[in-house]
Design a protein that fits this description.
Order of helices and strands: HHHHHH
Oligomer: single chain
Radius of gyration: 17 Å
Shape: flat
Largest sheet: none
Distance between the termini: 19 Å
Number of helices: 6
Length: about 130
């Protein structure tokens, strides 16, 4: 397999699984509500139970684990100077998009500008 294609596929796997993990964990925490209020009203054991009984949280953790193992695979076959910055910066971009689409967050013009600049930087780095 072409090393450039392998690097691209590895970076894509890292970015997609990390973004899915971030979105799922954020959605899980939002669905739980304010953990301080839960702790004050029902105690620490109930707060811990609320967190560990969230299926969204475990799905997010699973995606983050996949991202980690994708990173290990990528670093085994590619160079750190490309894999780490590209995956981290592209995750920033995909998190902005996913936050807007799935979490209905307000992503302002500055964040979109930053995302575009990150894409330009990754393109320059890859060539």
């Amino acid at each position: 397999m072409n090393i450039g294609l392998l690097n691209t596929a590895s970076i894509a796997a890292i970015v997609l699984t990390a973004t899915a993990g971030d979105v799922l964990i954020a959605a899980a925490m939002r669905s739980l509500g304010d953990l301080d209020l839960i702790r004050k009203s029902r105690g620490l054991p109930a707060t811990i139970f609320a967190v560990v009984s969230s299926p969204l949280l475990f799905a997010g953790i699973f995606c983050m684990a996949l991202s980690f193992f994708s990173l290990l695979f990528a670093l085994n076959h590619g160079s750190l100077s490309l894999i780490a910055p590209a995956s981290a910066s592209l995750t920033f971009v995909t998190n902005s998009i996913a936050a807007k689409l799935f979490l209905k967050e307000n992503v302002d013009r500055r964040r979109w500008t930053a995302a575009i600049l990150v894409c330009i930087g990754v393109a320059l780095m890859a060539n």
